[in-house]
Amino acid sequence: MSNSPHRQPLYYLLLLVLTTILGCSPAPKNVATTLSPLATSVASARGVMAIRGGRLELSARSSGTVRKILVQQGTYVQSGRLLAILDNPDLHFATEQARLELAQTTEHLQYLQRLQPGLSRLNQLEKMAAKQGVATEAEAIHATQDWLDLEGKIAEARQTQRLAQLHLQQSARHESHLLIKAPINGLIDRIPVQKGQWLNAADYPHVFTLIPDQPLIIRAEVNETFINRIHTGQRASVQVESLDNSRIFLAHVAYIGAQVEKPRLADLPQMANDFECQLTLDVPQYADQAINPHPNQPSFLHLGQTVLVKFL
Length: 312
Hints:
Low-confidence stretches: 1-7, 21-35
Helix content: 25-40%
Order of helices and strands: HHEEEEEHHEEEEEEEEE
Shape: elongated
Strand content: 25-35%
CATH class of the largest domain: Mainly Beta
Mean pLDDT: 79
Number of domains: 3
Distance between the termini: 61 Å
Number of strands: 14
Largest sheet: 6 strands, antiparallel, barrel
Structural class: alpha+beta
CATH architecture of the largest domain: Beta Barrel
């Protein structure tokens, strides 16, 4: 009988076993969140954290003595901000001389232009007088010649003024190079000069090293054995070797470049070639917290860190 008291313990025992088995089965989860990128890689490579275009070296474009340094290492600057002022008396003097030269040529031109209406009128009167017999033909010709001479002097004065303007523009441009400004937004990384130091523009002296306000990228060198397995847009995982293995950053391939040239000894056998590969992080990381636009998301990656890249 189904209601026999001898079968009820067996029924409850079977029910307990089934419940235990079902309870041990894992619930289905999102594969994208549980799948380890390390387990599905098709190729791997070593890489380094970098900035697209690299650090920017700001050099002195005109020679001079460092008079003022207006920022410190670690300062975030915006494009156009004045960073340092150089001093060069020769350039200042040349600009003042060019400005004075322009003022003199302009004044001379204006003087000749003031004479133009009166001389033109006198030329017309002399011609009319010659026709009426009041003046001689020679006097009329002389008046015309005076007017033509004045026109020639005015044209020459205009040319001299244009040359003076160009000279002033050139001198002012050289003088403006004494003001060193930030060409882009970024972080001052190094200041290898000191106040009072003389800088020779011919040596292209570096005054500041600027880290551009750009997200970090990964520059990896992929062995030619694996290059056919990689394509633009491919997913990848990035792991900093010095960090905990559990911290994985997701990225994708942005660019596959040419073969990387590496020096080798002539007596060694030819080794496999490497190809440049650039990757972009899915969640942007910045070189320094000061240029991170998301302060609530701290940067765990930094310039120069070596990383292990696994292509998925």
